[in-house]
Amino acid sequence: MKSISTFHGGLKRPRSMWTAVASPLAALALATGLTASLAPQACAAAPVIAQTDDAQQPVFTADATDSYVPAQPLAMQRGSSARGGDGQVMLTSQSQPSDAHSNVVLASSSEATFQVQPANPPGVLCEASTASNSWSWLETLELFGGLEGAKDPQDFGVNANFGGRLHVNWGAPLLPAWGVGVQIGTAVDLTDNAVQVFERVEGNTDRVQQFTTVGVFQRIGAVNWAVVYDFLEESYYDHFNLGQVRAKVGYHITHCDEIGAWGTIATQKDDGTFATIPLTLRPIDQASAFWRHTWENCAQTTVWVGGCPGHGQVNVALGDLPATNARVVFGADLHIPLSDNWAIFGEANFLTPANSGTVDAYLGFCYYIGSSAHGFRERQFSPVLPVADNTSMPVDLSRR
Hints:
Elements: E1 4-5, E2 11-12, H1 17-33, E3 49-51, E4 59-61, E5 73-77, E6 88-92, E7 100-106, E8 114-118, E9 141-151, E10 161-175, E11 180-193, H2 197-201, E12 206-220, E13 223-235, E14 239-252, E15 257-268, E16 270-274, E17 277-283, E18 286-294, E19 300-308, E20 327-337, E21 342-351, E22 358-367, E23 395-399
Parallel strand pairs: 3-5
Antiparallel strand pairs: 1-2, 4-5, 6-7, 7-8, 9-10, 9-22, 10-11, 11-12, 12-13, 13-14, 14-15, 15-18, 16-17, 17-23, 18-19, 19-20, 20-21, 21-22
């Protein structure tokens, strides 16, 4: 395997592609093999049964237009302690034993006449019991596989990349009493060049990126925060090692809405060459404010907007333009549970202008061995931040 000279005066040896992908591939294969043994989640609640000491067994049906009242027959049977007159009986769903969905008013103790009143909707429609310090290592483990596309300034103005991504992300308690946890994750992006210029000029046809994310986080009350270090080992037209610090702080203004900010600061750059052209790669600093909303089905959508101090406009074919000044950054992510074990997850981030900035995105499926897809990102010791990718670690290029 070819050794590559570096500005440090030593040699760097590219890491084998198969070594980089072995760990995530094995984890994803193990997760997929377990899918068949998991029972499907029930989607409909069973009829609600309450007991009464009256010998009769009246049956009534709620109006289907009433909010939060199931349009299924509800049976009152003998043996209950229901009061007569205008006594009020609370029915509880068998499938959600801690949730009361309707009130039944006994209008007459001598007649089988009941009135169904819609109850107030529950305050939290999708909650993952973040207040509990209980933890199982499978419940905070996430496996991902999907498609990856990226175009950054490091592509020298003439290339883009498309392929696949695998990642493993995991959280664990560090100081449980304080809600402090540790997160660790790794990812590999295997992409081919989407343009032929590199292949014809320099001979490169693909790129392998291995990301590692390690850090700490805390969820306490309505506040959550995280600080992580992201490391990137990249084999492209040369071999590079890059690093950055990434942080996030969020505050729940309601049970379903979170606002906050996230950002990155580059800590490690690296020198290399494209053919015979000496150059330097460096992560791009950025900061954005975000809003995340949790929907009734536990789906979460996040949008953000912010800025970066600028980036280079180097073009190997047409010549260079001056570096940009501060530019706008915007993006979004989504997490949509499909079952207890599967969810759709994706992220996109864009640094303007699109012709010289970044166009980075990935989308795919997450698998949760611990059946924790619903509300995964709100669990007490689930990772607060995703594993780094080009969306959160765009790379700038400058000539030396």
